[in-house]
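Ticket reopened. Same input as before:
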Amino acid sequence: MKTLEELRQFYDTTLINKLTVLEAQRKAVVKKVSIVAVVILAVIAVVLIVMRGAIAQSAMFALFPVVFGLVILGVITHLMARGYVGQFKDVVIYGIVKFIDETLSYSKHGYIGESVFRACEIFKRQPDRYKGDDLVAGKLGATEIEFSEIHAEYKTTTTDSKGRRKTHWHTIFKGLFFISDFNKDFACEVVVLPDTAERFLGRLGQMFQSWNIGRGELIKLEDPEFEKLFAVYSDDQIQARYILSTSLMKRIVDFKKRTGRQIFLSFIRSRIYVAVSYNKSLFEPRLLRTLIDFAPIQGYFEDLQVAIGIADDLNLNTRIWSKQ
Amino acid sequence: MTMLIVVIVIAVIVVGIPILIYNSLVGKKNQVLNVFGSIDALLKKRYDLIPNLVSTVKTYMKHERGTLTDITELRAKAVSGKLSDDERVDLDNKISGMLGGIMVAVENYPDLKANQNFLQLQAAMNEIEEQISAARRAYNAAVTDYNNALEMFPSNIVASMMRYERKRLFEISEKERENVNVGELFKSE
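Engineering reply: fixed in the latest deploy. New output:
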């Protein structure tokens, strides 16, 4: 596991030179965007002056040109920054991934497939829109790992009193999705979900959990700390405990505490799936912030380390069982 | 008319709830039996590995001949099936202790540690141990569930009518805790 010290050194010796080149590119993009922004704002101002008669009657009329102008500005910014974002990922994210482990591969456009997400059993709601990026894959010790950022959503359509249909998108999951080979062979399915009912309702909550339709049996585990944080479902009481050994439970609790995020896990056909929820978009540059700064680099490093560290955190490289 | 409905509702409550409680108690008792059966099956699987293990390590281990003979005898006794539950638990503890001892003694025989056959057996042993421990934990969870129902109101009333008695949890002896550590020893390899 690489330390912050080592990252600092890597930043000072290798990364900084590449960042300086990128920084010039960023400034050029910001300059272009600023010019476009000034032009668009000027056009909006002219339109507002032309429309002042209508605006005097109702302020609502002012809204259209402003919103329209800002949307166009957003789209143009996105298009202009696209090349820069790609370059940034090729240099910074790729660099940090290789710095953490030389053997890992990185693809900025790749992501964990939708079929894998659908098969993981963690999320019962199937997505209507699914996207992702920043796929990292490779082998750490004996363990094959793969993860990417993904965003899965479903939609609902409502019709208001005037008969207008409106589509709403709701997030099922956004964050890091990690898959790897598990170190024991097993045939059952185990799902570990964040516990909400038990924390607030105690035993009554446990009763509700056991009625959870569409999941297997509720598995009551003996680690009180783990039980407070997670609810476990499986179709096999014994195999579930074989997978969730006392040490693995402890490791999951530590992982959850260290990241401080919502964590979902499932174990299916000798593979482990871990979903770590994030509100922000991961591994994206901030256009209006300077690149020559260690803090954001440390942020990317830590986010990557969360996923790459899972194999170590959950001790997946211990191969003392029949599965090698 | 209202009277009739009230009577029906009360009758459903009076008859229905005890039936539900009765069924859930039977379910809990059978869950305990079911898991206990699985422990038995796993222990048998472990016994099946012993002859293999003994024949593999015999040629290498010069100083542990006595232990190897003892463990073979104990295994023969364990699979003969003419034992009470207490005797079986006792015998099983002894076998666990001996297996642990053998696995530690392996450290003194580098040739053995490089033997492919032995390595496979060792992995199979670790797996079985882990499964047995999982089954014991499942058993304890099932028993706790069952014992809770026996003591909590209102199921305790039905349970006492059914003459259900509390069941004992599997307690892990000091010796077996050491066994778990034996597993840890091999992790470093």
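DSSP finds seven helices and no strands in chain B. Chain B touches chain A at residues 31, 35, 38, 120, 122-124, 126-127, 130-131, 133-135, 137-138, 140-142, 144-145, 183, 186-187 (CB under 8 Å). Please confirm and we'll close it.
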